[in-house]
Amino acid sequence: HGGLAKHEWKQHGTCSGLPADAYFKEALRTMLSFPRMDRGTPKVIMASIGGEVDLQDLRKAYHKQVGIKATKEGVLEEITSCWEKRRDNGKVGQQIDCPAFVMKGFRNNVCRKGKCRKTVKVTKLGECDFRP
Q: How far is CA 3 from CA 15, 26, 46, 51, in A?
């Protein structure tokens, strides 16, 4: 098992109520439910690789409210989408607007103290934004 799988299980899977194998099967099923050309990464991000993306355009690319996390330097780090958990079988249901605790927490740090970034940088695969 790779580092990403361990991270995903520790951060998300352990509180899902599902065993590890069922959690990863459900995650894959959910990802595959996205339109074929999208798979969860909006075109606006793909078109901005190596540049910047306007946060209003980025938010519009999602059908529901998502958390957007960036580094202090303004590099896109994470997008948190939220999903209902079906009560009948514990599986993932429909995407929902992220609740207030997500939007006010560290997973949505592009607006703080009434000030919002206008853009975030989208790095190329393998590129980092390290500054000593």
A: 18, 19, 24, 28
Across the range 37-50, mean pLDDT stands at: 79
SS3 category, 75: strand
The token pair at 105 is 């927490």
Q: Are 61 and 45 in contact (CB under 8 A)?
A: yes
Please provide the distance, in angstroms rounded to a whole number, between the alpha carbons at the two ends of the chain. Answer: 32
Beta-ladder partners of 52: 121
Q: Give a three-class secondary structure readout of 41-52.
A: CCHHHHCCCCEE
- What is the average pLDDT value for the chain, to the nearest integer? 82
Q: Which of 18-22, 24-28, 48-52, 77-81 has the highest mean pLDDT?
A: 48-52
Give yes or no for a contact between 73 and 123, defined as CB atoms under 8 angstroms apart.
Answer: no
pTM: 0.73
